[in-house]
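[INFO] parsing input record for Sedoheptulokinase
[DEBUG] input buffer:
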Amino acid sequence: LKKSGFPVHLLPEVGDPGSIAGRTICAWHGIPKGTKVGIALGDFQCSVYSCLTERTDAVLNISTSAQLTICMPSGFQPPETPDPSSAVTYFPYFDGDYLAVAASLNGGNVLATFVDMVARWTEELGFQIQESAIYAKIIKAALDQNDSHLSVRPTIFGERHIPEQLGSVTSIAASELSLGHVTRAVCRGVIENLCSMLSVQRLMEAGVRRILGSGSALARNEVLRQEVERILPFPVVYGKDVDAAVGAAMVMFHRK
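[DEBUG] output buffer:
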C-alpha cells in the first residue's frame, strides 16, 4: 500500500482479539467515563464462544439457516486460497485457532416454506387455517410417524458452494405420502444436508464427543431433534443458545 501511495497512517493498528483499544472519554448512556473498550470482534466467532466450552464440542445451530461448527486442532492453518467449491469454510478464531464451519442456506426456512406451501394449498381448496396451527399439526403428524423412506434434498435455496443444486424428492412410494411421512423426511433432509457438508466421519476424526444444539428451529421442533439424534452418533445437549453479545462479553471478561 505504501508503494501505491496509500495513506497508511489512516489505517488502524492490528491487535489481538480481546485486547483493549482504549477507554471511553465521557459518560455515554449510563456507561461511565474511563470504561475499557475492546477491539471489535467477529459476530460469528463470538456466537460460537458463547456456548463452546470444550474443544471436543461441535455446535449445531438451526434457526432460519443452519450451521455446524467444530474447532480445528491447535496449529491448523487453512489453505492460502479458499476453495469456492468446498462446503466447509475456515474462520479465524481466538488464540490463533480456526473454526471449520458448514454454513447451510437451508434450515428453518425450509420448514417455513413447507408450512407456507401447505397453507396456500389449503387456501386454494377453499379453507383458511393459520400457519401456526399448520406447524403444530405437521409436527404432531410426524411424531406419530416414526420413520419415512422418502428422501428429501431440501436445498431449495441452493448452497454457497453449489448454488445450482436445488431441492428434490426421491424414493416416493404411494404408501408414504402422508403429512407425517413428508414432514419427517423434510426434517431428516435438513440434517442430512448439513452432514453432507461436514460429515460424521470428519467430526469423529476431529475428536468431537458432544453436539451442542441451539437455535429456534431446534427448540420448536421435536421431530428435528429426533433426527439430529438419529443421524449424529454423539450425545446432544440442547439449550446452548448462541448469542454474539454474550460471547463478546465473555471474551472481554476472560481476557481482561
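[INFO] Residues 136 and 221 are 9 Å apart (CA to CA).
[INFO] shutting down worker
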